[in-house]
Amino acid sequence: MSDNFTREITPLLMEWRRTLHQKPELGFMEYYTTYRIGKELEKLGFTIHVGVDALESASRMGVPDDLLLTEQENKALGWGVEETWMEKMRGGNTGVVATWDTEKKGEHLGLRFDIDALPIKESDTNDHFPSKQGFRSQEEGVMHACGHDGHTAIGLGVAHFIAQYKDTLTGRYTLIFQPAEEGGRGAKAITDKGWLNDIDQFYTGHIGINPYPVGTIAATTRGFLASTKLNVHFKGVASHAGMKPEEGKNALLAAATAATQLYAIPRHSGGPTRINVGKMTAGSGRNIIPETSYMEIETRGETKEINRYVLQEAKRILHASAAMHDVEVTMEFVGETEEIECDDSLVPFITQACEISTYVTEVLPYAKVSGSEDASFMTNKVQKNGGRATYMLFGTELPYGHHHPSFDYQEAVISIAVDAYIHILKGGMSHE
Amino acid sequence: MSDNFTREITPLLMEWRRTLHQKPELGFMEYYTTYRIGKELEKLGFTIHVGVDALESASRMGVPDDLLLTEQENKALGWGVEETWMEKMRGGNTGVVATWDTEKKGEHLGLRFDIDALPIKESDTNDHFPSKQGFRSQEEGVMHACGHDGHTAIGLGVAHFIAQYKDTLTGRYTLIFQPAEEGGRGAKAITDKGWLNDIDQFYTGHIGINPYPVGTIAATTRGFLASTKLNVHFKGVASHAGMKPEEGKNALLAAATAATQLYAIPRHSGGPTRINVGKMTAGSGRNIIPETSYMEIETRGETKEINRYVLQEAKRILHASAAMHDVEVTMEFVGETEEIECDDSLVPFITQACEISTYVTEVLPYAKVSGSEDASFMTNKVQKNGGRATYMLFGTELPYGHHHPSFDYQEAVISIAVDAYIHILKGGMSHE
Amino acid sequence: MSDNFTREITPLLMEWRRTLHQKPELGFMEYYTTYRIGKELEKLGFTIHVGVDALESASRMGVPDDLLLTEQENKALGWGVEETWMEKMRGGNTGVVATWDTEKKGEHLGLRFDIDALPIKESDTNDHFPSKQGFRSQEEGVMHACGHDGHTAIGLGVAHFIAQYKDTLTGRYTLIFQPAEEGGRGAKAITDKGWLNDIDQFYTGHIGINPYPVGTIAATTRGFLASTKLNVHFKGVASHAGMKPEEGKNALLAAATAATQLYAIPRHSGGPTRINVGKMTAGSGRNIIPETSYMEIETRGETKEINRYVLQEAKRILHASAAMHDVEVTMEFVGETEEIECDDSLVPFITQACEISTYVTEVLPYAKVSGSEDASFMTNKVQKNGGRATYMLFGTELPYGHHHPSFDYQEAVISIAVDAYIHILKGGMSHE
Amino acid sequence: MSDNFTREITPLLMEWRRTLHQKPELGFMEYYTTYRIGKELEKLGFTIHVGVDALESASRMGVPDDLLLTEQENKALGWGVEETWMEKMRGGNTGVVATWDTEKKGEHLGLRFDIDALPIKESDTNDHFPSKQGFRSQEEGVMHACGHDGHTAIGLGVAHFIAQYKDTLTGRYTLIFQPAEEGGRGAKAITDKGWLNDIDQFYTGHIGINPYPVGTIAATTRGFLASTKLNVHFKGVASHAGMKPEEGKNALLAAATAATQLYAIPRHSGGPTRINVGKMTAGSGRNIIPETSYMEIETRGETKEINRYVLQEAKRILHASAAMHDVEVTMEFVGETEEIECDDSLVPFITQACEISTYVTEVLPYAKVSGSEDASFMTNKVQKNGGRATYMLFGTELPYGHHHPSFDYQEAVISIAVDAYIHILKGGMSHE
């Protein structure tokens, strides 16, 4: 049945993807995106949870400041978001959780799709497919440069399948449309709301990442590191560098000291670690002892414990660097991910389920990846409660890498992912 | 005679000052300012030298880029600058040198007034005098926050005196209206043009600096340090900090290493030194090994030789920091000053000359200052050729320090400075 | 047959071990040790290769200076080493290679035993077994604190077996008694002489390391890292720190800068790396800008390539640190090891061969270790030429760790290792 | 009268100097030296104060450890020091204060002579005067390399003068033979005992320092900086650098971090500062995360206040460096000096007093020096209580600098200094 379904829904998938691509929204500001998803799911008959009903507001990290939120809220209202919807989302409470209970005995499956865009100015050259096809971002400086427009379309496709085949399905379904994946800021808030507490099987994944041909999927991934993202502010005392150098408290030097010391955090014998100071700004004028400085840092470790070791070292170093130059330091934790350890037991199941798909041409048992993913909060919660979880890849050629102004992917991967998921859903049932 | 003169010209001084205050222009972009000064001097009968006739174009440092120059040129044309004047100035060749020859035997006196403004947004609160009086800067983000509007008015006042009393004066007069004093960028270009080569007495100075009461002036200053201003760019290689840390070449670390090492340049037994990294920016994203970094640095030393020692150490450290992280470094020298050693023999002369002034209430033999001044290129050139030179201070209360958004001074200091200078001019003659 | 052999030779093993323990000699100074081994092997009928016949003299690293060599040579002569033997060894050419050809078809087996001691003062308390039993080091400050006395005894035991059972054996045997394992200084010199070029099976190993009970052995090891050991000297210029700070060139700061930067060498995505500055000395007096400094450094990497990456970074940093402080740097490479990758195909063979040993109670397929071993040069050469190689562990309780003044092991492990090796030798034959 | 006196005592001065030169003793271990001085002064009729009667034992800094003290005490007893004298000195309470009261009205004059030697191995080449003349140090590794043997001889010469001319003198005299000047460790202990509390005129000085010809003296000096000498110990945790890098706490890195940061203490606008890390040692073995490190540091400032600023910065940096690497730090203050500001009013007096000396050929009003001197505690105490004080120089050629193994001076300077002092004493009287 699914082949027909996938073929028939493909035009809709394309339309959703392209519409969203033109209205990209940054993390915790996906007002319009949330609204569009929610309306669609509502129409299909799902039970909808939006805003503070979907996520634990206090668990969000790196929420934009009020000015930016308000600006985007007004813009979204202008784009047609209803005030009743906005009320629930206002203040950066975006994202939707949709549930469906077949009221038949069966497992509880969770699927997660991330929906946010990036602060990147999209290429406008003619060789960039979205530009050529006329669906380039209409928001200058914001871009779906990581494929979350496709992820959202995939989620809506799966939702349509559930609604359409509800009578033949068993168990329960929870579809999570998560805000603010970029920077690892949104998944924890949804996890803390409890949505993952009784999931039996949890599926999420990404298009692209590794350069597999379209049609190839990976049943699991290995290598997502636990990570913490923090912003650091040093505050010292300005002074005229020529006249009163001894009266300054040098925030630039505190940051510089911290940077050189952070990279020297001892290696850990338990597994790989990473540390990066990706950005630094300090000082105001050539002639003034710098009063302030700012750094964006990321720590990583093979496991949550190893990342915690790196983070703890980093925190001590940051405090010591402040003490070294007699300045104050404040740290803001703006993102966090855990490691992901997919359940290998899902590999044969996924492989077998997709065998009859005419879209999926090959299932790799696992893909080696790197980087970090806040879906880790969800996979770990599911597994902690006895469920199984995986993070899959859906192959597509990538003319340019992720987060690039010319990032693009083969749209066919959307249908392939939908087809893979619905075969997994059907396999999951027959699996009973 | 001068008392009457000063009293009578005071309304004009106020008008010039307030007009210029409303149209502040940054260094090497003083198109309108130069035009206004030039037209006034021309009217008085001075011989006028503008643009490449006034300065050695290639000796300028820290010239803004073409885009900014063009923008300001167009703006100045809009403000009424004549095209024939603009032709001479185009490309950042601002400033005027005005000469007057009495054709009577006598000394050659040089006076210098700096005319540029600062990239500071002027306060718009009602307790800020220029705001209250309606002559706040009309150029958002540009401000006469160091009193050069007053300096220019003083220069025009002195010019009026010379024109008016030409028959009673002897010798020659060269009035220099110098661009781009801020950052130590303009004086060398005028000096290199030869204007200081045969000056017998050279006078320049500053209003404010030390908090002397209005009416008090200092005949000389001690403590201006030689300095060099340089901008440094490090260029490395970006890499994903999680996936390929070993492939990056970290420009942020090169800058951080340089910063911590620069402040440790050994003290010099020959006299005070200073070093400051006033500004640093580096990196693009949290997760990327930073590809670029930028620093604004200033070195200082009690003498040119000691500053050269600091500069040489700094250059070696910058190169070594680049080598340390395998990145490239480029340095741009954007400003330079020398030390100033005023001629003490001018103290009794100035003191005596001003004794009969009803504006100047007290003459201090010297003021202890700090900081740096590119007038040093001029004083040193004059002295090298056998002339005498001084850098004076003209007292005024300052509610806020120089370079502050609320910087302001007592306008009375303008008349006082004019009166001091014209007594010196007259004294200079009788001194013959 | 071997059980009886091992039981019967055990008293001799103990005697050898204890005799050698009392006369410990540092790397490349094992004159007496080499002589004792050589005489024993000669007596047994082996073909003996000593001194420059055994190793490539120029490939040695970290050879002690002539004064120390001469002193030890004289001491060894005093201990009875014959002048004809000393002639071959003089100048630090220690170690023996003994070969035996059964002149029957069969594989060529190589075994390696390291023979050097450490610069550690042995404990003289009564709870230290060698002290209590009266065979404590007679050389104050030199000690067999890593069990190479036992290794040598094991080698002699195996040699006795070969000589005694020569008629039942096939193929060829090469026994390598290697000098200067500590610091990774001797194995390369023997390897470069060509002894490993046509070995079919290569065995070496260590007693202790992991705390396995006596009787347990590990057929292979995993985790020995490639490493480089270097000594670094910075040479600057002294100056009175109070009077002429600007005239000094600070070698202490060069070393301190290098140290802080070395630990920050970027992690490598290809595998674990290590860096350590284990020792630093600098400067002469409180009041003098330090003229000299010295550091002992070790780099490590999972593979030779990754270690080379670390080493290359370290070298650049050392040069840049010297440039930073305008001092000179010289580096001395005093030791090197490669990674070891044991042949897993030897595991079932060793396991089976030792099954009938009454000494070996358990064979672990592999032991996880860390650290580095210059036997790596040998294993890699054997494998490169098509042979198979392993590095084994022989379990013993260790009251204190290796390189500790109270280091000791259960002497029974010596007989167990001999018994393991002779079963392997016999198994190797039947294996034909 | 003095000419004859000085001429007559010169042979004795030479004898004292050469005897002491052969028996140099380090600071707080001048047992033999103190005894010889004391016996001589006692013989002359001075009231003698030795050991804890001369100094405040608890105020001493950098006292050698007990083992060293005991060793030197035994050696001194072997050299003939009487047990009754040793009793008073035992534990490092060396030095003598000798007082003389003429019981005639007059000023109270204080003179100070330092008596300790340095841990330097004296040159034994024939071109080194003491070697050639047979009075080279008999204590290998200890040497009078700063002329304190001469200072002591000068003091004894002055004492003889006082005793001999007691009837013609007025007022009171306090002669201080101070231990442990090197490292600034002894003067404070004598000052704290109260000896300087009511001195009217205080004289001390140094032979050499500046290369004035013999016969030239300087009445005062300018430039001795306040200073603090501290030893720093970092204590971390050792760990195998390959196996468990994350378990170490790196004391070497703490010291290296501190060193690079200390030199970057901001310059002070109030006057010159200095900082030096003269010595560093850290770590034990190449492969071990260093557990301990040690540094010898000196801070300096033009005044006590400015030195205190540097010291306070240094302390914060040392604590922060320890925190940076999670290790412990302890600081030991082993020496301290203050700035010296000689009384200019003594210049004409000294000049006039020495005018009639046939030994002193020229009196410079002041000598510019650098470095630090713990006599500062004495001069400052005298001045604080209303007295006047100076630190003089006595010219001599120096073939090699102070603290050099070949340090030597023209012995004639001893007589010259004695003659200068006795003319000052006589002038002081007539000054009444």
UniProtKB/TrEMBL annotation, chains A, B, C, D:
Pfam families per the UniProt record, alphabetical: M20_dimer, Peptidase_M20
UniProt xrefs under SUPFAM superfamilies: Bacterial exopeptidase dimerisation domain, Zn-dependent exopeptidases
Stored InterPro entries: Amidohydrolase, Bact_exopeptidase_dim_dom, Peptidase_M20, Peptidase_M20/M20A_hydrolases, Peptidase_M20_dimer
Sequence ranges assigned to domain Peptidase M20 dimerisation in this UniProt record: 229-319
Name of the featured protein: Peptidase M20
Species, as recorded: Thalassobacillus devorans
